[in-house]
Fold this protein.
Amino acid sequence: MNATPALSPAHVSQRGALLLGLSGLTKRFGAFTALSAVDIAFHAGEIHCLLGENGAGKSTLCNLVFGVHAPDAGTMTLHGAPYRPAGPRDALTAGIAMVHQHFSLVEDMSVVDNLMLGRVRGVLDRRGWAARLDALGTRYGLELAPFARVGDLSIGERQRVEIVKCLMREPRLLILDEPTAVLLPDEIASLLAVCRRVAAEGAAVILVTHKLAEIREAADRATVLRQGQVVATSDAPSTEINRLVKAMIRRDLEGLDATTAATLGLEDESAVAAPAVHARPDGPDILQIDGVSLRDSDGALRLDALTLTLRAGEIVGLAGVEGNGQSELGLLLAGLDTPTGGRLVMDGQDLTGRTPSDFTAAGIGIVPEDRHRVGAIADMNVAENMFLNRTRAFTRFGLLQRRAMHDAGAELMRRFDVRATGPDARFGGLSGGNQQKAVLARELTAPGLRFLLAAQPTRGLDVGAVEAVYGLIREASARGIAVLLISSELDEVLAVAHRVAVIYRGRIVGERPSRPDQREAIGAMMAGHA
Amino acid sequence: MNARTLVSPGLAIPVLAAVAACLAGTLLVLALGFSLGDALSSFVDGTIGSHYALAVSLNRSVVYALVGLGFILANRAGLTNVGGEGQIAMGGMVAAAVALHHGVAALPFGLAFLLPLSAATLAGAAWGGLAGVLKARVGTNEVISTLLLSFIAVWLVYGSVQSVALLRQPMTSGATLPESLPVPDATQLPLLTGDAASPVTIGLPLAVVLAIGMAILLTRSRFGFQLRAVGLNPVAATRAGFAFASTVVVAMAIAGAFGGLAGGVMLLGEQFSLKAGFSSGYGYDGLVVGLLARGSVTGVVAAALLFGFLRSGGISMEMGAGVPTALVMVMQGLIVVAVAGAAFWLDRRGSRS
């Protein structure tokens, strides 16, 4: 299973010429080895998928190729010549372009202005650039309004701007770092089509992903990284998905939780049972979001008379493309913002306009979408974060009982399998999965919990942690707690929720039972075709 | 434990930086043609040369320490209180007004000085709290508001000693200075030794007790935890139930209270009468003490002592050896830059490994 085929000449010449070769590439950050002796060959005219969990070294590899970091050992060759970029500028000159996970666009400028940034001098030829944009759009099927303000574009369109920015340089190698995480199902399909066209014109494409459906659809080759090493390669990835997954998560699929398997995109595999069909539980209403509206300081309506009722023990999935009001709803449910219209009613108690402590006291637990800003304090330790909202329980005569807090923290860490050097470890130093488990530990052990908001709870987590998070959410539901799962991953919503509500432009535009056969209908509603 | 860890670099490097800055200052004294021997001996005379010099230096350090303690408390909550000067001015002015109030000097059980001292503390708290309210209510940056409030306070002091109807002493001739009457003996801070040749006031033990209290408050108490949470991440702290607005107001009020107390100590322990500009930069120096301390009470004490003795020595060098004050200020600045630079360097090294 750990066999790494050596790069044989036969391996090299199948589709196109060897474009970029990595040999023995190693990168260390302090004591941590992010990449260790990696050999990969990227060929012209191919889409090469890089697979791996978070922290496997995918991004480090891209950053080495793009010149962001310099390798500690090993060599790269481009067209057979040594390639040693001193920075991204060298990489661009060599014909390597990269679309990062985080966009670098100026929101207040138009598409064309963003394309011209840093590439023009003197008099600006906006018309000429718009024409170039149109030509590229026709060539690759990437339509963009040249003079639209980037801030007004959807996430998918912004990504298109980033891709066009790269394509304008006519790259010989295009790197896309997890480009599909933020896209609608339709948008993913068209992105993959763009990749295929780029490859068909003779360039190489490196597609970093952890979604198997994309590999099945687009990959010509795949390399799986785990802990900085190549653990599997495939010249026909679409036919060997299971082998690749096994290598990626290093375990057999028989033991894999059905929900997790569905979320990963494994389907119709004998090893994986279908997710259980979810029946909506028959409990009393717990939380009523009653015609809630929110106008932001610019006067834009972020939530538009949104109504949703959750029953005890029910998991409601809120599907939608990011930026349609999910974040605002999350802040309202945390008590951090006040609706400009409508009411939030918990167990018959109107909480509109109350403080976050009142929300917690009423039994509302929050796993926020922005763990670093809302969920925890990175520079405090694990125990302090686990009892952030319960410090009073550890206070005697105004003094904090650190010992007691430490011990209680250790106990919670055991119960929720939070792995860290101890309760005194700095929270910010934990892996994403352990951070999320610690936040869940805090919210799920709050006395009198009746409702849990889990907003994008598995974003950036590896498979083991994802499974743990689903397990905790399901346990909570079994305890009679109502759960609102906000997620932009439709697979996740379908696998975990009892029913699915779709949010579009601040409104619930429809509800569907959580069944795989509803996928297309839900996808259409997410795109606003309701 | 090996020899390398015996002296932690966290302590040794700022100290070495301070020593290096002092050496650089010495070279400057030489370069400008002053006699190094004269300069050094006047420096020693002015700091530890006599009981009197020692006492005066310690009293100065007390003022710096109080302002610095307030600064690090507000800083724990992510707030930068640059208004020490104004808080001192308000404290001093109110202390003078209360001490000069008819009947206060006759109060028993030390109330004669405790009452004006408490009033000074409250005045400082109000002045600092005002900046806190502005921040909590309308989001005014506290750096701006405390700085501007300082100007107001300093000019309020100026105005209050211009008019006999306010605090100016009765006009007996055209030569009557625009300052208040001296406060009555009973309202002055008692001396530790009871001997005017060694005038260390009870401000010193008070500052020590407050420093210990502050250390406990910041590291052990729930309130200290709250300050830290709000300072590190206001949103997450709010979500966890710590109210941002009240934390900010209380933190700024406490910081201001320390400044006001420092003003009271200056007026009742050293100056005895209110003059225009009596705060003379102590608030700004106290701010630097707070910054140098980098959040630690021990750091405040060390920096306050350094500044207290430097200022005394500087004044003495000017009087004894003719070294201009400007040069002393340059030395002070060199020390600040060296120590702060060393701290920055230590931080960077720490975050890289």
